[in-house]
Design brief:
The chain is α/β, with parallel strands linked by helices and 321 residues long. 39% of the residues lie in helices and 17% in strands. The strands form two sheets. It has a seven-stranded mixed β-sheet, with helices on both faces. Helix 6 links the parallel strand 4 and strand 5. Helix 2 packs parallel to helix 9 and helix 3 runs parallel beside helix 4.
Length: 321
């Protein structure tokens, strides 16, 4: 039989979804999911000012990035600063929208960190060519480079943006993919909230997706875009594009489960513990359990078992090929 907390969650969705899950949802997304996103951000960042007025549910981070770039790019004179290397979403969107790429190179010799000398040089060079950089894209943690930016680095990026009147697009969809023991993700929202003016007034767009950190189910399509320090009328115009398209309702429910996951202290403790262990195994959070990922299939076993050594060997081979 199903546990009581599972039945309660199902009833929660039944009571909050008008019609059924196969029907259209509101253009901005289900209101109860938006509220859970706001609470997730407030809890994660230690803030109190995230609210549903500036949260747009999306069908993933690609959708959110398109909304922002579509609003900011007018013609080829508008530049978007993007990291190199980067996964090709941003360079492709900029070309599609007929803007100009303003590439800044990450420092490979310094574990793919940002060089602020490089940022200043690139910004000045493109300004001299008649290109007006309007926004800087930051992918943190990085894809494909995997770097994680410290609080100090994020503060410097915010100061650079304030100085040069740039909005920030923080692509933070990999925030659960932290594999180094002792490392901690810090969002731009969190760091900015602790800075004085004018730095805490920089325009910020934050992206999040269910596709990466939790289960890697990229096909479900769910995520959100949050605007911070964005003029209310401008936000309406920016998100108006979503009025043309419909959101995948299953993706919205999956997003709700991601930002508001099952908690311990109920009947499904064992399942929750296995799920958390599966997320955290690379940081050795659970010494007696192993969670391995073989082609998207996750298996949890005791480390002292014979199967442990076999799974570890298979995992290494899978990663090598």
């Amino acid at each position: 039989p199903l546990h009581k907390d599972i039945k309660e969650r199902a009833l929660y969705y039944v009571n909050n979804i008008e019609g059924n899950i196969g029907a259209y949802s509101p253009k901005r997304g289900y209101a109860f999911v938006q509220q859970q996103v706001a609470e997730f951000i407030n809890k994660r960042d230690g803030v109190k000012d995230s609210n549903t007025d500036f949260i747009q549910l999306t069908s993933g981070s690609s959708d959110a990035a398109f909304i922002v770039l579509n609003a900011l790019i007018r013609d080829r004179k508008d530049g978007i600063m993007i990291p190199i290397p980067q996964y090709p979403l941003y360079s492709s969107l900029i070309e599609l929208l007929r803007g100009s790429q303003v590439p800044y190179y990450l420092d490979e010799d310094n574990k793919w960190q940002i060089s602020f000398e490089e940022l200043e040089k690139v910004h000045a060079n493109y300004k001299a060519q008649g290109i007006n950089p309007r926004l800087i894209v930051i992918i943190n943690p990085g894809n494909p480079t995997g770097q994680l930016f410290s609080k100090d680095t994020i503060e410097q990026i915010i100061k650079f943006s304030a100085k040069n009147k740039l909005a920030i697009l923080a692509d933070e969809v990999y925030q659960q993919n932290i594999y180094k023991v002792g490392a901690k993700f810090h969002s731009f929202r969190e760091v900015m909230s602790k800075m004085p003016e004018p730095y805490n007034k920089v325009e910020l767009f934050s992206l999040y997706s269910i596709s990466k950190g939790y289960m890697g189910d990229c096909g479900i399509r769910g995520g959100y875009l949050e605007g911070h320090n964005i003029d209310k009328q401008a936000w309406r115009e920016i998100t108006k594009l979503k009025d043309v398209f419909n959101l995948p309702t299953v993706g919205e429910i999956s997003l709700d489960l991601t930002v508001n996951p099952p908690q311990k202290g109920r009947e499904s403790d064992e399942t929750v513990e296995q799920f958390e262990t599966c997320l955290l195994y690379t940081s050795d959070a659970a010494d007696d359990l192993l969670c391995v990922d073989l082609g998207g299939r996750r298996i949890i076993k005791k480390k002292n078992s014979q199967l442990f050594r076999t799974l570890r060997h298979l995992t290494v081979l899978y990663q090598q090929h």
